Please model this.
Amino acid sequence: MSDARILVDLAAYARNLDTLRARVAPAELMAVVKADGYGHGLLPIARAAVANGVTWLGSLDIATGLELRRAGISQDVAIFAWLLGPWEDYREAIEARIDLGISTTEQLDQIADAGAAIPARLHLKIDTGLHRNGATEEEWPELVRRAVELDRGGVAEFHAVWTHIAEASDEEDSAAIARFDRAVAVAESLGASIRLRHLAASAAGLARSDARFDLVRIGAFSYGISPGGGIAPGELDIVPVMTLAAPVLEVSDGLAELGIGYADGISSAAAGVLDVTIGGRRYPIVSVGFDRIVVDLEGAQVETGEDGILFGPGTHGEATLQEWGDALGTIGEEVVTRLSGRIPREHS
Ligand SMILES: Cc1ncc(COP(=O)(O)O)c(C=O)c1O
Model:
């Protein structure tokens, strides 16, 4: 186990959900909890979302969806899985009432062959330009026809049409929304009765009312992670949920060694560009080793056992995740999801 600690502020997470829900209403909010709740801890995050009234969880894969069900997330809460491999056990997923994001007729065949005791709930995905699965416009009519057939046969319920968009430029997103509208119209013309449409993740969901449709799938912003490029969470009315702390283990020769390193997921590129806050003051990171980082005390005194804060909400002078993302040339999501499972998560 690591000497470091990840402190997760569940009250801040709940506040973000409240803020975001109000922003996307009347669309509903799906709390995306993939990748261990973006590194914040799957079950405490999912339970906090449900306790906050969230009725949709995005699990990414079936295994995570099943883990949520086994942990007691009730069937009143819909769980959506959309990254499906060729090996999936659809019967177990369907009977656990995991909604399935479908891109191919082969997946529909597998679902029809699964022999589940209840109908599968299907969300058909149209690729609107991101090219991260989804049916092409050419494949779409056949996918829809086959799903309508399964719906009529009682094997499945044609529940939703959805897509995922780049959220990198307004022009591209507008083109994706137009393609999505066309796909919905085609599906309806082929006899589908669509109960739900969803397209946006955090950025478009917050920025554009025309992207929200019936449901917005929100990950990053719920954790207080802003899109980077200098946009601070405060500008979006969200607060960072995670604080990363590591104790000072040794002080010598004007340097302090802290108990965290690249084996915990800290990039060695942090040396020379980022710092650690100890007792309200920042100290530059001079090196990142296997399970230690070294900071330059610049003549100041710190004590063994004091906590160093690598990043947090920024309210006590510490760096924010956004600063880490910007300094490392990446986004906050990458920094938090790289943090090792060996760092204990403490939820409060
Ligand atoms: C399909 C889908 N929807 C929504 C999200 C949430 O995105 P964000 O973290 O930008 O809110 C993701 C995450 O990448 C995703 O893959």
